[in-house]
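Obj.: predict assembly geometry.
Materials: sequence records (below).
Method: joint structure prediction, all chains together.
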Amino acid sequence: MDSLKIDFKKLLPFVVDAFTKVYGEEYYDIISQRIYNAEIIQYYDIEGLRDYILYIKICKSREYAIKFLEKIGINVEKYIKNNYTQPLDDKIEKILEYYIGSSFKGFTKSNDYWAPLRAFKTKNETPPSKFLENKIKIINYLLGSEHKQVTEENFDLFVQTEEYQEILKKINELNIVYEQLLLEYRKWEEQLYPYEEIVESEEKRKEEILNGKKNTTFMDIFSQLPRPIKDAISDKSLEEQANLILGSFDIGFRSAIESFSCDRMEKLKSKDVDLFDKFSIVLSQTIFLKNIGIEVPNKQMLACDSEEDVNDYLTFLSQDNIKKYIPSDDVIHYITFVKEKNYEDAIREYYVTRKDFLDAKKEFVNNESNHKFIYDQIRNKKVCIAGQGGTRSDNKFISLMFYTIRTYDRGSLFWTFMHECGHIIDQSLKGTGFERSNDFTEDSGKNPYDHAFRKYEKFNETINDMFTIEAVDFLHNQGIYLIEPQKYTVLDVSNNNTALITKNLLQPLVSKFRKQVIRAKVNADHKELIRYIGKDNFEELVDVVNKVDYLSRNGVVSKINTSPEDEMVKEYFEQVE
Amino acid sequence: MKGIKSIIYEMNGQTLVIDLCEKSQMKYKNISRIIREEKDFEYLKNLFCIIDTWNEEYIDTKTIDGCYWKLSILYSNGNKKEYRGKASYPNNFEAFERLNQKLIDEVQNG
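Observations (raw structure tokens):
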């Protein structure tokens, strides 16, 4: 499966070729030298992997559902989209419902339950009522709306008719087509098994480590718990006690007992806190009270539909026989402190023993600072190049890329990889594109509109995205789709990473000063552009990009057509002009 | 739904919107689907359980290409709660990602 275990070496010649076409032949040497020298560390984001497996299954089942309809003679041509990344047309799904449930349900492992056609297979353990419902569904569909409908009541009579025999023959023919496709689909699915095993075993391993730490946490805090709580849970096993006090989730979540902290109690009393927030606190607190065996009687009060309900609940809590179970704020703070420490220990233990972490470690000099760096990249599921780059044994500068499949990368794996390659081409000791090396430190200049970003970050990212799109388009135009096939590739990436409106904003600059922009980018030197457009103009452009990006992330795009008088929209047009 | 108007989750240019007005609706990548009431209540209950420990910001400005994400909860009375991050996440972020993907897939695939 090319998209799940990516052979980056095979991709590099295409990367070099595409960016050389975009930047010009004169950059071939620098592009190939930087791309081939880069170190690419591939690792798994388990949640991303799990999600991606599902994504390709969904795409594949859409493809097979269309094949099914075509094979049974239904003309679906006008509804077919250019690939399978988007849901099938509603009209197609409606037809599929009568044959196989839906494009997705028809190819899942539980298709016996969902697919009407499967109801005619003898080895089917679907509950009788659903079984019959499915049979009736497809029979009526094949009979047509003009025909008297078959129902649960008249079904037994209908099966004795000639008409049923005719329908059954048709259904058998349909099932031959469906089963052939199912077989093919299951065969294709087999190549996903090794990755599903990784997901399953890693999730299990993480859960075991976290459960172990939950028990340790419980033992650490037990002595601090109020006596009535200890008494209430004394007959339970250690694991049960830990779950009753710390909740059923892992210790990365707030436990129910912590919802009695002073700040939560203050929120319940405050007139400025929204009812849903109060409801979620009450829900959490009552889970804890029920866990230790306290009856929480009034359902209306727990619904928190009004401030009165919340006040009733607070009155309920203030009763002596309830109050004695509520720990002091000091105890709650202690619980939070122990939990957070143990959670960090558990997560570190999980990551540093993972195979991909250990593999990545081999690529670096073995020291604590490098281990911490790798841990930080993998834990925070980063797809990036390291700001300060790295060196090989000959002391020459190289770029370091970390790559994984993240949850929202469905269909744009190659685009993401190319975007990082775009940065590698621009990276040297001086910096990366329009950002200097010292921009990647704590003290670097900040984007004045949003401190989450560096001053030149959005400008640099937008320019990099624009050239990346050109490079990817160059390959796509030749029919070259890498990592993912065309049918599973999201083609519109205009808003990936940076907003389309900031790209549009910079298009005139890139058109007019293309050579200068490329030279400045690849040499990581603003001055190559500044000498043509002037320092003030450059800084102003950076500022406009920062401002428009900020506006776009705060909803300006949706308001441009609908609310021209909105202050944000006016500001946007002012900046663009 | 107890005064919550909508939930908006943005990540690297993609947006998931859950409108909780009269008929709950999910919008994601040009797709819009009605959500059943029990499903949106379940989503909200889990969401509030997950975000209960979150700080308002998780920002790492030192990374090139840190993924930017933002979760906004809009209340009917105009109040707003925001959580966001760049190249850094709260402890149980994976549970949040899974919750969203589950909703998207369930609504899209039935």
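Conclusions so far: The beta strands of chain A are 39-42, 384-385, 390-391, 397-398, 400-403, 427-428, 431-432, 435-436.
To do: check interface contacts against the pulldown list.
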